[in-house]
């Protein structure tokens, strides 16, 4: 996954990260201030990465939906037709929410709330009075809604490909239910979701992963396995995973796929088809990759394909969290760093966390949303804790923390990079800066 940003010296920097089931790592960055971010330029950068890693080890490239990225996608399709290029799900879902917010029935309320918030947070006496009457509870808070839980899923580092398609379907049903099944109320919202998600969140990779996730397939074998669009998507994926070998493709589609659909051979094991157990477990406690590793032995090729695509992310937002590492290294006192030195320092700092990574779950279950109406939290903590915040009055609680509560979009968790003090250029009448060396 790749994205671009601008540092303190207004240099344009493009970074490239790699995601796998074990986590995300920073690969490289480069300054491109003197180059236009055209499709050719992005393609050349991504293609070089694919060559370095090995095309056989790369399943997909994830970027946002900008036109230059889509142009790079077309070029990669010609050079590497067996590598998927998928749109960032977090960016796409933000577009969905933005489109919903622009509807007249919501826009007036949202604009009024923004104006009121800007006024209150722009006057310290007014803000102090508000906090007095609200017991220091802020009026700007991220709300835990059933739909925004889907955004939370795709915006994390956990492999989200197994859940995106199914959770988006559930969110649509939740919207219908919340609006009492009145078509005139829910149809405009679903139309926006369908329009923004078309070709972005419903490609053959998303649909195939939905089919190969036993959490969903076990609940609706006939409905999922018999759908035309599902089987069409699976055939395209099989062709891309096993290119040029029509015999192997036929064995997977006509043989191994049928074994899975009918739950035969190793899939008939005691726990493999235990629907009650799958239904009893919450989605985030179920491991589809582990399931395929345990029970997919009678369909070796399909097992290999399933494990690889069930381990994928759906978002490039990890690149944005990587910017926090850049910001920590490239501070006001270290802004003479060359881009080469900056790349090396970020490489060490960001990737070192893989050695100490703790596997924690940062997703709230839908059933728990009533317990966390005040905040979006890692676990259900004491939501009445004291608030420490640095609040953007327009976008909300981007920098808000409550006790052990994390931000809605977290920065890197490492402590700020502290450099050894060096000689200061006292002749600089502007701010003092550390020299690169």
Can you give a write-up of this model?
With 437 residues, this protein is mostly helical. It has two domains: 2-88 and 316-357, Ribonuclease H-like superfamily/Ribonuclease H (Nucleotidyltransferase, domain 5), CATH 3.30.420; 91-108 and 146-310, no CATH class. It is 48% helix and 8% strand. The chain has 18 helices and seven strands. The strands form three sheets. It has a three-stranded antiparallel beta sheet, with helices on one face. The chain has a two-stranded parallel ribbon with strand order 4-5. A two-stranded antiparallel sheet has the order 6-7. A hairpin with a 2-residue loop joins strand 2 and strand 3 (23-31). Helix 6 (146-154) packs antiparallel against helix 7, helix 7 (161-178) packs across helix 9 and helix 12 packs across helix 13 (246-261). It is globular, with a radius of gyration of 24 Å.
Main beta sheet: 3 strands, antiparallel
Q: What is the typical, i.e. mean, pLDDT?
A: 76
The structure class reads: mainly alpha
Total number of beta strands: 7
Tally of discrete structural domains: 2
- Strand order within the widest sheet? 1-2-3
Helical fraction equals: 40-55%
Radius of gyration, taken over Cα atoms and rounded to an integer in Å = 24 Å
Series of H and E elements: EEEHEHEHHHHHHHHHHHHHHHHEE
Q: How much beta, percentage-wise? A: 5-15%
Poorly predicted tracts of residues: 358-437
């Amino acid at each position: 996954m790749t994205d671009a940003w601008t540092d303190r010296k207004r240099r344009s920097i493009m970074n490239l990260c790699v995601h796998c089931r074990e986590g995300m790592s920073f690969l490289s960055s480069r300054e491109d201030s003197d180059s236009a971010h055209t499709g050719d330029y992005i393609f050349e950068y991504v293609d070089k990465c694919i060559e370095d890693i090995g095309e056989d080890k790369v399943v997909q490239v994830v970027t946002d939906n900008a036109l230059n990225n889509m142009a790079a996608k077309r070029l990669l399709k010609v050079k590497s037709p067996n590598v998927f290029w998928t749109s960032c799900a977090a960016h796409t879902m933000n577009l969905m929410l933005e489109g919903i917010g622009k509807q007249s029935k919501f826009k007036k309320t949202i604009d009024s709330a923004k104006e009121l918030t800007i006024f209150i947070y722009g006057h310290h006496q007014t803000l102090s009075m508000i906090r007095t009457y609200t017991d220091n509870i802020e009026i700007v808070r991220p709300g835990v809604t059933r739909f925004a839980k889907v955004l939370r899923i795709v915006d994390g580092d956990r492999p989200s490909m197994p859940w995106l398609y199914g959770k988006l379907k559930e969110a649509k049903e939740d919207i219908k239910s919340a609006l009492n099944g009145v078509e005139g109320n829910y149809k405009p919202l679903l139309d926006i979701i369908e329009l923004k998600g078309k070709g972005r969140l419903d490609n053959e990779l998303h649909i195939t992963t939905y089919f190969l996730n036993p959490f969903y397939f076990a609940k609706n074998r006939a409905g999922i396995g018999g759908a035309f669009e599902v089987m069409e998507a699976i055939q395209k994926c099989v062709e891309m995973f096993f290119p040029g070998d029509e015999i192997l493709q036929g064995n997977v589609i006509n043989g191994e796929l049928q074994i899975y659909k009918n739950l035969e051979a190793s899939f008939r094991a005691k726990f493999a088809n235990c629907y009650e157990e799958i239904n009893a477990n919450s989605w985030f406690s179920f491991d589809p990759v582990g399931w395929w590793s345990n029970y997919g032995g009678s369909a070796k090729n399909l097992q290999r394909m399933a494990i690889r695509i069930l381990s994928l992310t759906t978002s490039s937002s990890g690149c944005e969290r990587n910017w926090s590492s850049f910001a920590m290294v490239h501070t006001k006192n270290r802004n003479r760093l060359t881009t080469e030195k900056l790349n090396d320092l970020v490489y060490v700092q960001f990737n070192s966390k893989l050695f100490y990574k703790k596997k924690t779950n940062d997703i709230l279950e839908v059933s728990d949303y009533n317990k966390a109406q005040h905040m979006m939290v890692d676990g259900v903590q004491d939501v009445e804790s004291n608030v420490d915040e640095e609040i953007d009055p327009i976008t909300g609680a981007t920098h808000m923390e409550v006790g052990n509560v994390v931000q809605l979009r977290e920065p890197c968790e490492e402590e700020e990079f502290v450099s050894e003090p060096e000689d200061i250029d006292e002749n600089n009448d502007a701010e003092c800066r550390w020299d690169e060396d």
